[in-house]
Amino acid sequence: MARLALRIKFLWYQFLMSNSLDIARNVLALEIKGLEALKASLGADFAAAVDLIHQAKGRVVVTGMGKSGHIARKMAATFSSTGTPALYVHPAEASHGDLGMISRDDVVVALSKSGETAELGDLLAYTARFSIPLVAITSVHGSALSKSAQIDLILPDIEEACGETFAPTTSTTMMMALGDALAVALLRARGFSASDFQGFHPGGKLGAALRKARDLMHSADALPLAALDTPMTQIVAVISDGGFGCAGIVDEKGALKGIITDGDIRRHFTADAQSKTAAEVMTKNPRTAQPETLAGDILAYMSRNKITAIFVIEDERPVGLVHVHDCLTIGVV
To answer: Known NCBIfam families for this protein (predicted)?
Structure first.
């Protein structure tokens, strides 16, 4: 009897797992269908919206209620972190004083699937009264929101993934993707770079990877350097004293000509090794970094080439050194 109960329980678990996987795959299929339809629908209105926001002297004010409001918050955050100053204004709070946050130089982007969200009413009237440009993101052309907007971006009519309740699923996925598309298009229009992006993301792994060589390199006075004619017996001491596992070899003008590592010492450890000079043993024209090179790029190069240190040069002269531990310490991955 106990064995039968266990068997029934096992079969029920298999049914639930199979059913859940089928449901999940169907949800994703519907949302992918929505994204494909959204991609195909983009045209002149999208380009006009990008141009309108790009030309604005003020900020992008993103608004929406309920699930659309959550998407609007994320959209404002993405705009702000990619070079387009933005903020989220709650439509209900706007009616109680937050309309004062919106200036005539701003552009408002309003999200509503139906386009008939009552809480947006005062905000829409405010944009009309003061001639503030309005971009609508909605599923219904001809809705109150659509009629109020200078540009309306209409979401394709694709069924929601939650067929039982019609809860916003496919539509909010399309809204989210459309916001990302606007942000990236604006980023490119502004010529926003990884360096600019790092300025808005100083913390976490992303911020660490976007830090530059000059931010983490050991300074010039700590560099293990030696001249081209330095005997190998002295090179060993330079490497040991430096603590980086390598020595940079420079000419009489201070330009970096080569590098000698612990591995080079071992490979050249022969009976006549002591009679050799740095110029005879060094690896010529080593790969180097610039002060503006991103930490993430430096670590990636080290990993690919199985090296632990790289010199940072300026005008051919070494001005710093980045060790793999320096990257790992600040969280670069």
So the answer is: kpsF
